[in-house]
Amino acid sequence: MDKFSISVFLWFKLIVGLRKRGEGTRESGGFLLCKPGKRKVVKVVFYDQFDETVSATGIIQFKGAAAFFEYLANENLEVLADIHSHPTTNTQQSDSDKRHPMIRLKGHIAIIAPNYAKDLFIFPKNCSVYKFLGNFDWKKFEVAMSPIHLNLF
Ligand SMILES: [Zn+2]
């Protein structure tokens, strides 16, 4: 079992941020950040903070990696997971999602939220959660959530 924790506040900040950026018409995304080696989310940031045109085509094309990694180094933070929205309730990874992990490190977690994140309440169990195993392999998790812990089975 993998486990990480995120406060309810940060989770909804994440979802509201995706919703606002997606405007019901396009995918949006962000990163869940932690202190080095920890499993607790301490900050969420969005792709458009590092690349204003990331959602311009409707699907995510992130060109802000250099600025983002500089930000991580300056803030002494690491990426625990990324999240992006899909247009419908289908939160399965696309071929592109599988082939292009946002962070190409084994153990990286990718979360997919439904309906451009525009539903009133989206909880972790409404999303799909995947762990990157290397190459093009991913493991899908079952998600259980207590108020502050996201438990991935
Ligand atoms: Zn996707």
Largest sheet descriptor: 6 strands, mixed
The number of helical elements comes to 3
Structural Rg: 14 Å
Strand content: 25-35%
Number of domains: 1
The mean pLDDT is 92
Which sequence of strands runs across the widest sheet? 3-2-4-5-6-7
Overall structural class, as computed from helix and strand content, comes to: alpha+beta
Distance between the termini: 5 Å
The shape, in one word, is globular
CATH fold name, please?
Cytidine Deaminase, domain 2
The CATH H-level superfamily is Cytidine Deaminase, domain 2
How would you explain this protein's 3D organization?
The chain has 153 residues and is an alpha+beta fold. The chain has a single domain, classed as Cytidine Deaminase, domain 2 (3-Layer(aba) Sandwich), CATH 3.40.140. The protein has three helices and nine strands. The strands form two sheets. The chain has a six-stranded mixed sheet with strand order 3-2-4-5-6-7, covered by helices on one side. A three-stranded antiparallel sheet has the order 1-9-8, with no helix packed on it. It is globular. It binds zinc ion. Zinc ion is lined by residues 84, 86, 94, 97, 112.
Topology:
Elements: E1 2-5, H1 8-22, E2 29-34, E3 43-46, H2 65-75, E4 78-85, H3 95-99, E5 109-113, E6 128-134, E7 137-141, E8 143-145, E9 149-152
Parallel strand pairs: 4-5
Antiparallel strand pairs: 1-9, 2-3, 2-4, 5-6, 6-7, 8-9
